Structures are given as C-alpha cells and as structure tokens.
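Supplementary notes for students who missed Thursday's class. We covered one full example, reproduced here. Read the sequence, then the structure, then the short commentary at the end.
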Amino acid sequence: MNPPLIEVRDLKVYFPVRRGIFGKTLYVKAVDGVDLVIDKGQIITLVGESGCGKTTLGKVIAGLIEPTSGVMLYMGKDIRRMSRREYMKYRRNVQIIHQDPYASLNPTKTVFQTLSTPLRKWGIARSRSKLIEKVSELLELVGLHPARDFLFKYPHQLSGGQRQRVVIARAISVNPLVIVADEPITMIDVSLRIGILDLMLDLQKRLGSSYLFITHDFGAARYFTAKGGGLIAVMYLGNIVEMGPAEEVIHDPLHPYTKVLLSAVPVPDPELSRKKKPIKLKSLDIPSPINPPPGCKFHTRCPYSIDKCSSVVPELVEIKKNHYVACHLYT
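Structure (token representation):
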C-alpha cells in the first residue's frame, strides 16, 4: 500500500512575539498539535475564523514555514531528513496559490516572464519558442484566451480575476501533485468567484492534483468540496475540531463550534431566515493564542460545555464513518 502524499503528525508551529516582564519568551500557538493526511487526488478544505491557523498550516505543508515540532511526511519520508534532491522534488510537487493576486505577482515582470521562470528552472522548456508555446498553453488552460493578448502584459494591466488565473497557471505549470489554495477567491469580485472555483475543480480532474483548500466561507467550502467529493476540516485556535464529508459536516455538524459557524451563515430565503435562530455563545471574546484555555479551547465560549471540558483536552475520534470530532459530548 502506497503512503499518502502528505501526512502531518502532532504538528506545532509557535511564533515568538515578545518577552514578558521576567524575560520569558511568549509564543503564539498558531498550530497546536494537528494530524492530517492528504491522499492522491483528494480535496481537503480547512474552514475556520481568521487567526485559527489555517494559513500557517498550509504554508508548512507547502514548505514555506518550518514547524516548531511534529512530523511532516511527503510520500512517507520526513522532509527534515530528505536529501537536497528529494527536498527539491517535494518543493516542486507541492505548490501554493496565495490569497492576494495583487501582492503575489511581481509588478515588474510580464505574464510571460512570471510563468516561464519555473518552466526554465525545472527544465520543462528551455528555448524561447518552446517557452512561449508552453506559457500559451497554460494561459489557455486557465481561461485566458487568446493567450497572445496576455503574454506580455504586466499585472497592473490585468483585472483581479485575470491575475488570480495567472497565479493558478503558475501553480500548475510544474505539474504538482498537491496544491495549497489559500483563500484563492477572497480578493476576487463576487461575480467571478464561482468561475475561479469551477476552474480549479476542472484542473483537478484534468491533472489529478490533490487540493488543500483554505477558506473562512462555508458556502465556498461546501461548493468546492462537495463537487470534488472531499472532506471539510474545521479549525479552532490551532486545532482541527471536526472533519468529515462535506455534506455530512454541513447538514449534521457534531462539534458545537461547527454548529455556531453554520448558524451564522446567511440564508437567502427571507422565510427561512426569520425562522433560523443563531446559536448564542457564552462569550464573544476569542481566547488569546498566546495563552489558550486549558482543556477544550472552545469551552469558554461553548453553550454546551460540561465540567470535563475545562480540564481535559478532547481527542479527535471517529464518531461515524469518516466523520471525526474532538468533543467530550460524544466521547
């Protein structure tokens, strides 16, 4: 049996922020003990509030941030013990689509220069004619056609949606096995968001890549993950608190935090909207990631908390087939 493409075990990422009054270093616990597996061709969507650690986890998987502790495996090999050749192969096969298409493209380089650089680096194409041919294919693939109209444009000459398509083209240019998509539609016009999601799903079917899709929007998470037949993982203060098939997590959420998030999603039908009652939290204050609460980190806000929640950390356990939750109400 082949190992999964990506596997993380008890992954922790702590960032030093300042020294306390007695000279003690304080840390933001951005990711605080995450286990996650990404198989070939699989879609996993990370959902949660801003600051819960989604982007940090994605950057660790993409090789942009080194974890504080824990194990990160690529095809069964610890990335910290790889040879340089193996590590470069891993970096090629795990690409990232950044959140902001306005900041992730070099304003001094044309679309051709941006997309031809990885092709030249990895020896996919070398001569100028081959580079133009390959870049044109990439532009057509992401819906920028005719390609000749975009080859030598600069980022400021493109719309937000066109820029994001160029960013996607750059990510797929080296035929990666895993793509980390970090909030890829947040900076895009609402009218263009479905088009970008459909493009990514179409490319996933064509290329067979796996996706780690990061978003705070449950609507986008449901659309992207359900159509791709993947899993939704809900994060809170550095931990995954629930994970399962998209439709099951949406229609039958188990963790109180997931229920709270879904109760806050707007309903377009006025009749249903009037009947829908948001779940009230015990507290609106989000605990500090520097000094999170003991036990379950959500217990200070959870309307269903019990005594055990304030002292014992719940483990992520399988309650239904492929549906996991970290909550004492079920264990």
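Commentary. The mean pLDDT is 91. The chain is about 30% helix and 25% strand. If anything here is unclear, bring it to office hours.
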